[in-house]
Design the sequence.
């Protein structure tokens, strides 16, 4: 294949890379949030343990810790589905290259890979939004008395 013939093939195959960039930025945000959730869980866990050792019960901290644990699970699923979305885009790029350069007749596979990538992205965003709602619930619990 000549360089002039290869250029449009590469352009068509590389187009979905922008989707990887976008999902990658979402993934960065999700992993940053997950790190903060883990740090906050450790702090709250230590507070609950201190209260327990002193013979007190800090119900607010215990409930917040439960919410934080739920958030960590939601963020885990959000990250998993984001990574799966990127994985399907990478497979899509390889399939598009095969279709354009090698003349493979795999259009149903290309459509399935694209649909799978977008489905995983949507599921990931649902878990991400669920985390945001749980974070606001924990905030309301923490500052509710001052409102």
Sequence:
């Amino acid at each position: 294949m000549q360089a002039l013939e290869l250029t449009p093939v590469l352009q068509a195959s590389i187009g979905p890379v922008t989707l990887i960039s976008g999902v990658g930025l979402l993934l960065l945000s999700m992993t940053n949030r997950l790190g903060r959730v883990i740090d906050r869980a450790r702090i709250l866990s230590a507070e609950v343990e201190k209260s327990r050792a002193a013979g007190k019960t800090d119900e607010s901290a215990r409930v917040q810790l439960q919410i934080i644990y739920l958030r960590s699970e939601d963020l885990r699923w959000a990250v998993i589905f984001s990574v799966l979305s990127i994985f399907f885009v990478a497979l899509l790029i390889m399939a598009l290259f095969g279709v354009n350069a090698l003349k493979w007749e795999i259009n149903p596979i290309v459509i399935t890979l694209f649909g799978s990538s977008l489905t995983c992205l949507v599921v990931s965003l649902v878990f991400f939004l669920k985390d945001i709602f749980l974070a606001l619930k924990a905030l309301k619990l923490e500052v509710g008395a001052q409102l």
The chain has one domain: 3-142. The chain has a mean pLDDT of 90. Residues 51 and 57 are 6 Å apart (CA to CA). The longest helix spans residues 59-101.
